[in-house]
Amino acid sequence: MTDVNTFSHPILITGGAGFLGSHMVALCLEKRIDLVVVDNLSNSDLSNLQTLEKHFNVTIPFFNIDIRDQDKLKDFFNEHRFSAVIHFAGLKSVAESVANPDLYHDNNVVGSQNVIDCIKAQGIKNLIFSSSATVYGDPQYLPIDEDHPVQPYNPYGETKAQVEELFIQDEYFKTASVKLLRYFNPVGSYKCIIGEKPNGMPNNLMPYILGVARGEYDFLNIYGDDYETDDGTGVRDYIHVTDLMEAHWSALMDDVIGCEIYNVGCGKGFSVKEMVKAFEEVNQVKIPYQIQPRRDGDIATCYAAVDKIKNHLNWSAKLNLESMCRDAWSVNS
Ligand SMILES: NC(=O)c1ccc[n+]([C@@H]2O[C@H](COP(=O)([O-])OP(=O)(O)OC[C@H]3O[C@@H](n4cnc5c(N)ncnc54)[C@H](O)[C@@H]3O)[C@@H](O)[C@H]2O)c1
């Protein structure tokens, strides 16, 4: 078990202005851990970090760097030392990745290789990478455990699988503590003060529901109601972002050497229609929807086996669907 007092340098949080990264910043500030954020603000702005600065009465060191910019990234690592790196920076829209796979490869894979090169040059040994359940593609069995074949169904998932391999195949990481966390579907907000604020049209379900609830969109498009699920709409494993960050904390504190992969989810699936119903009931807001054809790259059902992370890192999700819907809306309403 890592002792936080052994962190002689800050933790680097790449993508720290985004939805999940800013929640990790919040957790570190709560635990009084020094941190530095790198982000190019391509899918975020500074508002979450500014809110946290006010809330915690601190200044968050922020560097506007694109991780694809190798020279700038190298200079940055030459000027700062880190005890750990949590690598969230990346593009995450399945639909956009289908339309522009080269952008996704360049941003997510080439960008991550640059981060990895800098990590190795500095000799950092405590690392977490944001992977995704998307690497599993269309599940061969449910719940999906970490031994399930990796067979991504879209270019976004392919980039995540490729970056996992960059860590797994590299001899350097056999001497480091590396956690590849395959998130399922994070929703909710930190203490209802920061939340998800994507630039432009949301791609994930919850931010889209929030947009409809705020009146920005007239209705929710549900892509496909003819999947082989109970109500025909896609089933996913949702996890409260507070639980997800606690999983990161457990991963950061675990000092077992080697690359380990963990699913991070609740271990239960909910359909799109169930999510809409839960959101409406908890928040007393109507979410009109229209059924559209299936979207390229989407699958019917996906939920996690979560025994490994419970057994190894002693972590399991605590917050239920009602908390996720309530907390997501409370920061957005
Ligand atoms: N939210 C999810 O549903 C989910 C699920 C599984 C995995 N993930 C992964 O978790 C990570 C964080 O996701 P999120 O929901 O916070 O997304 P987000 O878009 O809110 O945050 C990602 C951040 O990375 C930044 N970024 C993107 N490309 C960059 C680049 N080239 N250089 C520097 N910064 C860059 C963006 O500006 C953004 O602030 C991503 O890697 C994503 O693929 C997210």
Automatic annotation (TrEMBL):
One of its GO terms (molecular function) is UDP-glucose 4-epimerase activity. CDD domains: UDP_G4E_1_SDR_e (cd05247). Its cofactor is NAD(+). It is an enzyme of class 5 (isomerase). It catalyses: UDP-alpha-D-glucose = UDP-alpha-D-galactose. GO terms for biological process: galactose metabolic process. GO terms for cellular component: cytosol. Pfam families: GDP_Man_Dehyd. Belongs to the NAD(P)-dependent epimerase/dehydratase family. Homodimer. This is UDP-glucose 4-epimerase.
